Structure formats: C-alpha cells, structure tokens
Amino acid sequence: MKADRRKILIIDDEEVVLDSCTQILGGANHELATANNGVKGLEFVESFHPDLVFVDLKMPGISGFEVLEKIRAVDPTIVTIVITGYATVGSAVEAMKKGAYDFLPKPFTPEELRLITRRGLEKRSLVLETMALKREREIMRENFAAIVSHELKSPLGAVQQNLFAMTRDASGSEKQKERLEKMKTRIDDLMKLIHKWLRGISVDMDSIKETFEPVSMAACIEKAVESTAPEAVRKDIGVAVAVHEPIRLVLGDEVSLTEALVNILGNAIKYSHVGTEVAVRAEEKNDRIEISVTDSGVGIAEEDLSMIFDGFYRAESGKAAAGGVGLGLAITRRIIEAHEGSVSVHSELGKGSTFVLSLPVLRSAPPEETGAEGVKDSAKGGTG
Amino acid sequence: MSEKAKLLMIDDDPDFVEGIKAILDDAGYDVDVAYNPDDGFKALTSQHYDLLLLDIMMGRGAEGVMIARKMRKDPVLNQVPVLIITGIREQIAFLFPGQAVHPGFVATDALVEKPVEPDLLLEKVRALLQAAAEKKGK
Prior knowledge:
By secondary structure, chain A is α/β, with parallel strands linked by helices.
C-alpha cells in the first residue's frame, strides 16, 4: 500500500451528513474533502483526485446520477458509492449501471460507513493494481518481442550464414554436404518459428491494411485445404467443403486470410480423432461472409474457451495432441480483426468444436458471376 | 573489373561477418571489416571503398542508421553505394512504429535480410557496384 493517505470526497447537500461523515472518517487514515452540491463536487474530482467518492443521489442542481456519469468520464478508476435516502432497488440499480460500486442507504451507522469505506478503498487498490499489471503486461509483451527478435535471431543468423558459406565450399565430401543441407533446413525451420511467434506478439497488423485488395474467400479456403491436406491424409480425416455461391469478395490480404484459415482448419484436423470428418462451410449472410469449420474432435472445456485466443495458451483437452505453441488462434484473431471481422467458437468437451469467421463483404464490387448455381461440394483428404 | 573491388563491412557480430566474408572473398572481392560503428566510420573516411555492407542494429540501437545518415550528408561518402544487411524486419517496427518497412530510407542502397543466400548477396553486390560505376562514367 502506498504511504500517502487515501483521499475521500463526499458530495451531499445535507450539512449534517457531511459533518457526521467527516467526524467518522476523519483522522490519520484518510484525507477528506466535502462538497454540498454536484458542481462543486465535480470541481473537487478534478483538483483533489479522490480515490473514493460518496455521492448523494438526490441533490438540488445537477443530480447524483449526472455527477456519477461525469466522474466516470474524468477518471473511470475512481470508485463511487451512492448515498441515498430513497433506497429503492430501482435507483440503486440505476446508479450501479452508471458505474457506482455500491450504495449506502440513509440513515446509516458509523460502523456501516466505515465498512463500506474500507471496501470501497480496497476496490480502488484492486482497480489500480489491475491497471498497473495490464500496463506491465503490454510492456513485457513488447520487450519480449524485441528480445526474441535480436537475441534469438542474431545467433541463428550467424550460424546459418556460415552454413551458407560452407555449402559453397566444394572441398567437403558428399556426406558432409548432406549434413550441411540438413542443418540449414533445421535452422531455417527454427527461424520461421520465431517469425511466427513475433507475428503473434508484436507485428503491427495495421500495416497489412495498406495492401488490402478484393479477395475471394472461396480461393482462400481452397488454398487452406490444400496446405493442410498432408496432415488430413495422414490422420485419415475427410475435409468436406461447401461454398454456398454466390458469395461476394472481401477487402483484405489474401496471404493473411489464408493463414487464418490454415490455423483454424489445421487445429480442427489436429484435434480430430483419426478417421473422422471436418466440415468447412462458407455462405453470405447480411452483408457478411461467414466461414465455419466444424470438427467432431476433443472439444474445449467451457472454462478454457475465453483463453484460447490469448496466445501461448492451450486448453487442457488440447495438450495431449502433439505440437504447437498455442499461438495460431491469437494470430488468427489478430488477422481477422484487422479485417474488421470476428472469430467465435462453440465447443463441447468430447464432442468437438465449431469456429466461425465472419468478415464484411466488399460492397462496391458486384457479386462474382459464376455459372454454378447453388451448393458446390467437394471433398478432399482421406476417404474415411 | 580489372582491379579488385574494395568493400567495407560494418557489423558487430564477428561470426556473422565471417559467414559473409567467406562468400565475398571466394568471389574475389577485397573485404575489410569494422566491428563497431566508430571504427567503421573512421575506415570509411580514411580510404576509398567501392561499397559498404552495413548492419543496422549495433551497440545501443540502430547505430547503422546513424552511419547511413552521416554518409548521406558527406559529398564524397554519399557516392559510395550501401548494402544494408540486417535482421531488421522486426526491429524496424520498433524504430518506426506504425510505418511500413521501407528499404529505401538511405539513398541508392539495397537491403537484404540476415541470413542472406550467397547468390542473392553476390547479385546485389554486383548490381550496386555496376550502378555506381555507370554513374561515375557519366
């Protein structure tokens, strides 16, 4: 806890309330300020920087509700508690909606006031700590990316450069050359992995927006299916694609969008049981392209669902499956969000998952003329 | 070229330098090396080089950029072509947040990423030397 005293502001039009609160809360632990109307109170919010503000709901002039709203606009981390003589559930709920932390019905005992004050200040500490942690996390994330970038890539680059030089040197035996090639491949894989990490953590997705152009999601799906086909064949998983034509183009970056689909489809295959099927479906709905990828694999537990897009996280159910660092979905979300789209997931542990990508259509372009009507079906991968 | 082209490489990673130098030596270039920006700039001003191979992230930060800027202001040094060899693609995002990576932030140069394939390296070096020679001939 900070050494300085916590600041409490009380805004109430009744002098007797201000006096009694001052008496009860005054002393070594807190620094107090009082205001007998909303306007004065708001001036104090700006000049006094309180940690906690008590606001009477019913005051002449601007109302307590308005005061609450304005405090929130000045500094949403300030904890507010409403004092109310008409403690109906309705007004209390209304105040909470405006961001109040709690409410104190009049009349109250000194003990009640002390208790709610202590809770309010604890809340304030929590809010401040959470903010500090979030900031710290952001800084760590950026620093981590910088460290990975320089400290890991430099030595690998030096090794690889020397391998390049050695490969050109004709003096080695065939066997040595073969080994050098293998080393080059492994280093190259490792560098690609680091690039992928960095992409998930630091790279500014806004920069890809500069090169957006009309993209066919049907083409992206085809490429994604192709690039995940080896794994699908290996696990004998059928990938059924249904693109409900006509669907319009989207504005975006084809490489990134394909990468997003590869991540989702790759996961579906990775977490599927051998010999099952994965369904990819695309359709246009309300000016958006929706692409869903459904598997009947291991599924994700409800408590894990909120974390899977965060990066470096793998659900309990996914840990048994081999490989991966848990960044694919974080990258996918960043890519899709850079395209003004959204990613959602429905899943049931043991039953499977459905991931849905939703992207806005490119409105200015007319729908693509395709000869084919209705549903185009194709299947790739294992035959089941 | 009848005479060996004289190149200077400024890079603070001796192991990486060795990998580049081996390729360039092998191709018949005469390569001097400086392992820090100060020595590098001293070398540049003390004798003529046909080409500079320059790392960006050295010392406390992007000191390679400082060298490039100093060269651009110098009427003699700004005639020397610069090949930037760097693992900068990510670092540059820290230097110039929100801006697209732009290889042409120093006049007349080219940029390759570490590590660089020998054929690409030799081609870039050849192209830069040739362009500089043509410019001189005019």
